[in-house]
Design brief:
This protein is α/β, with parallel strands linked by helices. It is about 40% helix and about 15% strand. The chain is built from twelve helices and 16 strands. A seven-stranded mixed β-sheet has the order 2-10-9-8-7-3-4, sandwiched between helices. Strands 12-15-14 form a three-stranded antiparallel β-sheet. A two-stranded parallel sheet has the order 1-13. Helix 3 packs parallel to helix 4 and helix 9 crosses helix 12.
Length: about 400
């Protein structure tokens, strides 16, 4: 008879996870990348080179670089962030973490307690929303438009919270290629967000994981770079630019926050071999690698939009995102995305239902997030065709006669 562990689990423990049974044949979920765009040859050469030169430092926790991570990788990042995002930071301002999710966990652990309030974008990264909910934190969602979070509604929310005696612990935003909407916060709105944050004495947590994937290759300066008061914590990752399975992210933060996160990071350091390989590869090759990755992703997005237009017609509405790996799709109000998710999965198609990616279940009820980076072009076409048939079987849409009009909003 198996031992019964159930009485030992503390109250509030998350529900048990299901056993993994493999990826769906047509997988439009997660933040996976294009397998054909992984720079395997360069990474293999980098691994051989850095291990031959510095491999014996693996005998020491932190590779003789201290608890903030491998120094050459932090040096690369400080130069890259200065060049690309306008950020004046040194290696000593950077902490290497096990993916951006650990960065979020450390920020939350340093700043939040049960009952606190955080301001977020209404449509948002599920990992952030889930973490806030588990911590018992109130997430106030601010709607977005094509230019990102609406500053008039942010101002109204801050004023309302202040009138009720509530000071948000921080504003969490994905300003550059927002997840899931793909929007980019305009320069004017960045200035206004920083002004509001200063006026209400609220820090900003800037999640910048997708900034390298803007189709044009040109990005606005980071909020961190624009802040005069130093009230921005900046989070980034190599998951979208190199490979998610490497699990290497980073945080740029003022020392009063960094020192608290270091005290909370009790894992004896993030994976050192990954850091060594990335530093060795990225210094000479990153700038040449990313444009090719962007081009490959853009082509897959075009295939996805064409497939949606062909299969769903007027039943699917979406903006052409300015970069990234996701498409945020609105289906008719009669469609329940959670029900569509379950039915589609039985047919081998995995999607992210909108309510999991929003603070407003009603607003997102008929929306879905599709990741187009991982499937092949043919898998995108075939998967969308099956998804349309499932949607037709379950909800009567799209009607076959309606699949003629383009639904990309310029």
């Amino acid at each position: 008879m198996a031992f019964d562990f159930d009485p030992l689990f503390p109250a509030g423990t998350p529900a048990p996870a299901a056993r993994w049974t493999g990826l769906a044949p047509f997988n439009f979920t997660g933040g996976n990348n294009d397998p054909d765009a992984i720079p395997l040859d360069g990474l293999m050469a980098a691994a051989q080179s850095v291990l031959a030169r510095e491999g014996r430092t693996l005998s020491t926790y932190g590779l003789n670089s201290g608890p903030q991570g491998y120094r050459p990788l932090r040096d690369f990042l400080s130069a890259k962030l200065g060049r690309d995002a306008g950020m004046a930071c040194t290696a000593d301002d950077i902490l290497i973490v096990s993916g951006s999710l650990q960065a979020l966990d450390l920020v939350n652990a340093a700043l939040l307690t049960r009952g606190d309030t955080v301001i977020v974008e209404q449509d948002n990264y599920q990992g952030t929303l889930t973490r806030l909910a588990r911590l018992g934190v109130n997430a106030v969602g601010i709607p977005l438009d094509r230019d990102g979070m609406r500053m008039d509604l942010l101002a109204a929310a801050l004023a309302d919270l202040k009138a009720r005696g509530v000071r948000p612990k921080f504003i969490y935003t994905i300003p550059t290629v927002q997840n899931p909407t793909g929007t980019i916060l305009t320069l004017e709105r960045r200035r206004e967000m920083l002004r509001l944050a200063d006026d209400y004495k609220v820090p900003i947590v800037e999640d910048d994981c997708y900034a390298d994937l803007i189709w044009s290759g040109e990005r606005p300066p980071a909020l961190y770079a624009m802040s005069a008061s130093g009230n921005v914590i900046h989070i980034g990752s190599f998951s979208k630019s190199i490979a998610p399975a490497l699990r290497v992210g980073f945080v740029v933060a003022p020392w009063p926050v960094m020192s608290r996160m270091l005290a909370l990071k009790t894992d004896a350091g993030s994976g050192s071999l990954e850091q060594m390989v990335l530093a060795e590869y990225c210094a000479p090759h990153f700038a040449d690698h990313v444009p090719g990755l962007r081009m490959a992703l853009r082509k897959k997005l075009e295939t996805l939009m064409e497939a949606l237009n062909e299969q769903f017609g007027t039943a699917a509405e979406f903006d052409d995102p300015k970069g990234g790996i996701f498409l945020w799709v609105k289906l008719p109000d009669t469609v329940d995305a959670q029900r569509l998710y379950q039915a589609a999965l039985k047919r081998g198609v995995a999607i992210n239902p909108g309510p999991d990616w929003s603070t407003d279940a009603g607003h997102s009820k008929s929306r879905m997030r599709l990741c187009f980076a991982s499937p092949s072009h043919q898998e995108i076409r075939d998967g969308v065709a099956i998804l349309a048939q499932v949607c037709r079987d379950e909800f009567g849409v799209p009607s076959r006669s309606g699949n003629v009009d383009k639904r990309v909003r310029d």
